[in-house]
Amino acid sequence: MASKNKKLNLKDKYQYLTRDMAWEPTYEKHEDIYPDESFEGIKILNWDQWEDPFRLTMDTYWKYQAEKEKKLYAIFDAFAQNNGQQNITDARYVNALKLFLSGISPVEYAAYQGYARVGRQFSGAGARVACQMQAIDELRHAQTQQHAMSHYNKHFNGLHDASYQHDRVWFLSVPKSFFDDARSAGPFEFLTAISFSFEYVLTNLLFVPFMSGAAYNGDMATVTFGFSAQSDEARHMTLGLEVIKFILEQHEDNVPIIQKWVDKWFWRGFRLLSLVGMMMDYMLPNKVMSWAEAWEMYYEQSGGALFKDLERYGIRPPKYQDVANAAKNHSSHQTWATFYQYSQATNFHTWMPQEDEMAWLSEKYPETFDKYYRDRFEHWDKEQKKGNRFYNNTLPQLCQVCQIPNIMTEKDDPTVFSHRQVKHEGERYHFCSDGCCDIFKNEPEKYIQAWLPVHQIYQGNCGGADVATVVEKYYHIVPGVDNMEYLGSPDHQRWLDIKGLKPLSTSRQKKTAA
Amino acid sequence: MSVEIKTTSVEPIRNTYSAIARRFGDKPATRYQEASFDLAATTNFHYRPLWDPKRTLNDPTRTALRMEDWYAVTDPRQFFYGAYVGNRAKMQEAAESSFAFCDKRNLLTRLPEETQKQLLRLLVPFRHVALGANMNNSKIAGDSTATTVSQMHMFAATDHLGMGQYLSRIALLLDGSTGTALDESKTYWMDDELWQPLRKLVEGILVVDDWFEITLVQNVLLDGLMYPLVYDRMDAWFGEQGAEDISMLTEFQRDWYKESLRWTNAMIKTVVAESGRNREQVQSWVKNWEPMVYEALKPIAQATTGLDALDELRAELSVRLKKAGLESTGVQA
Description:
The complex is a heterodimer of chains A (514) and B (333). By secondary structure, chain A is an all-alpha fold. Chain A has a single domain (47-507), classed as Ribonucleotide Reductase, subunit A (Orthogonal Bundle). Chain A is 58% helix and 3% strand. Chain A contains 23 helices and 4 strands. In chain A, strand 2 and strand 3 (427-431) form a beta hairpin. In chain A, helix 6 runs antiparallel to helix 11 (220-250). The radius of gyration of chain A is 24 Å and the shape is globular. Chain B is mainly α and 333 residues long. Chain B is built from 13 helices and no strands. Chain B has helices at residues 18-24, 31-36, 81-104, 113-122, 126-143, 147-174, 180-191, 196-205, 211-240, 246-249, 251-274, 276-303, 307-323. The mean pLDDT of chain B is 96. The chains are: A mainly alpha (514), B mainly alpha (333). At the A-B interface, helix 1, helix 3, helix 5, helix 6 and helix 7 of A face helix 1, helix 2, helix 3, helix 4 and helix 5 of B.
């Protein structure tokens, strides 16, 4: 079959191997096959203009990914065989893994489900295929994270029931509601939320800090996962940028819709990152950089350049980014202070920073740490040494949107809590900020549905009326073993044993499986 | 003499995650277990989906079937992501060397013009069916609730994409990588009467909402008749036309289909055995769809292997369904 035509270039060849397998249906209506594509109001004039963000055929994908998996699992095996958990900087570090496995791994799984769905919803086959590849990548991440941390779970407490806790524990409703929000939205908002805001704008502030934290703290299993996932993440970021540019280029009516989503998902992402900021500043024994430095580098500089680039589409930087920028010097301290007080209800340990760590915080936060936070922390430390470790036994009020307790302060006055409220159909709703309040006002019928953990406890939907019962029975958290103060905890004791500060044989742990 | 390296041993405080221990006891778990059980969220969802406000996220009622525990459906291949890509990487290595061999020796372009045209008309258009299968399985991966079920469909989705790409590459071998053969082949899919019943069926499956109905029709009924027809019977028929080399380029599909029977059979068996209600529902879907699948493939069989081949395969499918406690009507063989 001699051909007159020229050999296909790579781009066209990839199109023949993906979107050309699709066809315009004639036996069923287009909108019956793709019923979810139009209700958000996004106008796509021509899916042919979709630029494939990467060109991986399945055979190449299988080959590359299998090579990566083989190397990764060789390291996992070596790590377990050599008890690599003994080589970390300090057992306090493992608490960052508890936060990761219960807060992040389940949303990797939710991302898998979300991408599998949008991998069917779009009528543009090029976009579908790119989404499906991200779906199976996210499944990979959720699963390899179970395996990376499996060995830690055998030697430390608090990692044992992460997915179960993700559905129930009060602060885990912050990441869960974030992904529920994205997955319950339409396909275009899902991609704006996860591919663009989460993967493209914020990955360096979420995924990367955990992996760098692993590298700085001798966690070979997790950091090897991080390296192995890096090329996946690069693909996801490319998809995120293509998504936003494609939608914006398709029709000018899309611009205000996208702007609204950019505002919303930036703010939701920023609030979610409070957990990462606290991890970076307080939970890593060997610190990578301060949260404020990370925010400056990865949001203010990189994000600034990105939004400059998007200006030509009529997109401005996210609303309230000035509030977020100002909060970089406060949010990690306020968040850690909260988790310290409510440590009886978390799945990880908390502690007060040691003296050298306090000095590091003073140096990294010259304007704020000594002025607003040091005294409180020193007071708590002193009380603890006297045997009065502080736990707060009230339940905090949660923001109706981001679900973080109303602990954040006003932009211009860090001594005043930021609190907004709105009346909707006779009910009063509370918010942590103007950002969250705006999100509510744009879609009240969505956010009144929120499953707010504190409300649910008070309504008796969490297995008991008092916090202790809820924590033990409903959360599957073993009090004092999985959580509360680190000093003197079984994890701490065990670590001292490992480091030979006490002979292992004389103080071998009792089994504490839940 | 044996070499003995002294290592320090540390007693673990538990052997696996609690969710795995609740199912299998606190003993060392397999990687398949830790990767596949109880990862998906099950409760306390915050918002109803805008695209399906009557149900929650991860709602088990996205199929009419009911299972006490969907994790009862497991994968006999024990595929989690790593095991899956490892397996497919080996399969693609074999396929790659076959394609390279055919390309180097010009095995396809040396075929008579008429045979080449037959390949474009009768084999390559199945790439479009593969894309439909890809879409359906991606939907199921998003809609089904247990990871053990969901991941098998995600793997099937990417498998079908890959197999559609292998079929496309047959046309690219024929047209010297210009795309003209693919263009020609697509016109058969769109306009040739031979293909219209199958295209109508494929479009018809794309508007089904119940994910288990889709997996039954797509992965059991359609694949169950189509794969042995195309890659076994028609493969032999192409051989008779002098195109036996094409077998090399479809080996992946043959291996794949044999392997896919393991999980599809296990899934159907478990789900049907769960309750009389499930059995009745699945039975009514079989009754509705099996004759449609048969009719859709009929013109292709008639143009190639003859109808007897399809009837034999239909009887084999009937035996297979019977093992799961299902009857298929209209068996002519």
